[in-house]
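R.M. (postdoc): so does anyone remember the format we settled on? I'll just put the structure tokens first.
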């Protein structure tokens, strides 16, 4: 008998950035972070997990049709944690099939370019963890599963909820309080939109994992960021989301992106993720807001040159119109060469 379960997990884009680990092994962050979950119609990972006593060759993962290396400590940590949780259920109820002892086969597909700086590791690990949790019929809440997904990739712990999600850094050494929770469901602020401008779909230069470790080790500015800037931004961002205050949401989002990239520039040697097209996108957002006489758009960048612009649905004509004028040929786009992807927030 083959046991099987499928799930999808969405991409999330942080508006308060996770950048820095206090424990690289357990993937414990130096600061809390907060993200907006994107619509699964546009960006998601679909993962099917199966297991059977007859699967003889050990665990495996196919990602976008290719066999993927699962020997890494992070993937192994996720498998181990989920198996332990299943084994506890089996110990409590001996009538349950011993799925925890069977090899796992995972098949995973993204509907967007992998490793293009589009948070593929977040959706990927979230889907992997959720699919196995479904297969094992674990009673764990999304927050409890976020403890496992975090060990796969930090940002993945924010992709299990939908809506507006906070990852609380926690202070315990074993990481048992470093987990995500739901700040507000997507329905709380349903007119939020994200435009993703794919400046380059090439694989990024410095991975987030290694970039953030270099920043922690060498940037003086970073100390100021984690002790003062991020705690204040977390508080403002939560208030902005709860009050649906777009101007405040936008200002904190842009300041956060700038602060994160300033710390990258302050890393020694410096790390540059944004390129000239990225900077043109920042100018475009500034000119949209100046013309509107109020803040109607906010940019943010992760560990790559691609730009995510948040705006409200009622401002879509103004924001999208301005982008097609200003950026023109600089944006390579994706999906039939469109200038970007309009994504509703899940
Ligand atoms: C800039 O979650 O990819 O996107 O934990 O090492 O896998 P690892 O890092 P990862 O880092 C994401 C960094 C970021 C900001 C964010 O998503 O909060």
């Amino acid at each position: 008998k083959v046991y099987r379960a499928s799930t999808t997990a969405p991409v999330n884009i942080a508006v308060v950035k996770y950048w820095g680990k206090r424990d690289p092994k357990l993937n414990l962050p130096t600061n809390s972070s907060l993200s907006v979950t994107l619509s699964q119609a546009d960006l998601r990972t679909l993962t099917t997990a199966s297991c059977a006593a007859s699967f003889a060759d050990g665990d495996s993962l196919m990602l976008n049709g290719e066999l993927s290396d699962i020997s890494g400590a992070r993937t192994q940590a996720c498998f181990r944690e989920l198996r332990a949780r299943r084994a506890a259920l089996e110990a409590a109820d001996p009538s349950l099939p011993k799925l925890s002892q069977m090899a796992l086969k995972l098949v995973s597909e993204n509907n967007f370019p992998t490793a293009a700086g589009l948070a593929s590791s977040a959706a990927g690990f979230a889907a992997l963890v959720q699919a196995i949790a479904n297969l094992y019929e674990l009673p764990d809440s999304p927050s409890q599963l976020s403890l496992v997904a975090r060990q796969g990739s930090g940002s993945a712990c924010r992709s299990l909820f939908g809506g507006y999600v906070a990852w609380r850094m926690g202070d315990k050494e074993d990481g048992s309080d470093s987990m995500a929770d739901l700040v507000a469901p997507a329905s709380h602020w349903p007119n939020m939109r994200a435009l993703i401008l794919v400046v380059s779909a090439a694989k990024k230069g410095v991975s987030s994992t290694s970039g953030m470790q270099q920043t922690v080790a060498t940037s003086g500015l970073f100390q100021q960021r984690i002790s003062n800037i991020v705690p204040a931004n977390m508080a403002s961002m939560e208030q902005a989301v709860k009050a649906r205050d777009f101007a405040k949401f936008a200002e904190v989002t842009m300041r956060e992106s700038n602060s994160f990239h300033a710390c990258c520039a302050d890393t020694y040697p410096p790390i540059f993720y944004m390129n000239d097209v990225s900077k043109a996108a920042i100018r475009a957002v500034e000119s949209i807001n100046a013309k509107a006489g109020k803040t109607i758009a906010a940019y943010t960048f992760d560990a790559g040159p691609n730009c995510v612009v948040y705006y409200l649905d009622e401002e879509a004509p103004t924001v999208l119109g301005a982008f097609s004028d200003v950026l023109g040929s600089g944006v390579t786009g994706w999906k039939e060469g469109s200038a970007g992807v309009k994504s509703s927030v899940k």
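R.M.: ...and that's the designed sequence above, right after the tokens. Also worth knowing: Confidence is low (pLDDT under 50) at residues 333-342. The CA atoms of residues 56 and 267 lie 47 Å apart.
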